[in-house]
Target: ABC-2 type transport system ATP-binding protein
Amino acid sequence: MPHSSAIAPAIEIRGLHHRYGAREVLRGIDLQVAPGQIYALLGGNGAGKSTTLNALLGFLAPASGTVRVCGIDPAAAPAEARARLAYVPESVALYDHLSARENIDYFLALAGAERGRSSVIDPALEAVGLPGHAWDKRVGGFSKGMRQKVAIALALARHVPVLLLDEPTSGLDPKATLEFNALLATARARDVAILMVTHDLLSAVDIADRIGFLAEGRIEEERTAGPTGERFDLNALHARYANPGVAA
Ligand SMILES: Nc1ncnc2c1ncn2[C@@H]1O[C@H](COP(=O)(O)OP(=O)(O)OP(=O)(O)O)[C@@H](O)[C@H]1O
Model:
């Protein structure tokens, strides 16, 4: 699995502090994701997961610390940082009256990216496994899983090196979750660095290369998958996740 620590991280957060008013919600986050690596960030409600994503998206001016997306500071140069990433929120925003192909074409045009149908759009839809009969259907009738496929196809078509996902599997049934994880594997094989905020331990265990536990504004612990074949211990992780501050 291509996640050598020798590769420069595409996502790099060091010593990140952030406060809302008097309340310090991030208290020294350290987190790196290399190209071709999937990092699952777990944490209870209010732990600071969305705030961390917002820092990468350039929506925050951190009190202190370093945030870099492919070497770019998103607070100082948000447009440059966002040109290198795709953000997939829990509920994917698409134009419901447009088809899958038309949505991708439209967003590629907005991004100023190359947008040939046969050279760019169709290969991306093929890569994410959206059935051909759905390509020209209006996405208004698509399931959550199908909308995610369109969003990831757009990310692949844009060739972004970084993918940020906010609770992507919430509300997906187990089959759709497996399909979603297969999408992530496709992006990982293209050397995309993937940061996934999630409460879904099963999905994280299935697909992540590294799992970080965020509590009280800090990464309390990270666990890394072993070489091929060795995966995470689900029971130990569940005990860890349910009891922040207590080693499993
Ligand atoms: N704009 C804001 N102003 C003030 N406080 C905020 C703001 N945004 C978030 N917070 C607070 O900061 C803390 C961290 O919030 P954040 O949304 O990052 O947590 P989270 O880990 O994503 O939680 P959840 O799993 O519930 O989405 C919470 O206590 C939240 O109430």
Remarks:
- The chain has eight helices and nine strands.
- The chain has a mean pLDDT of 90.
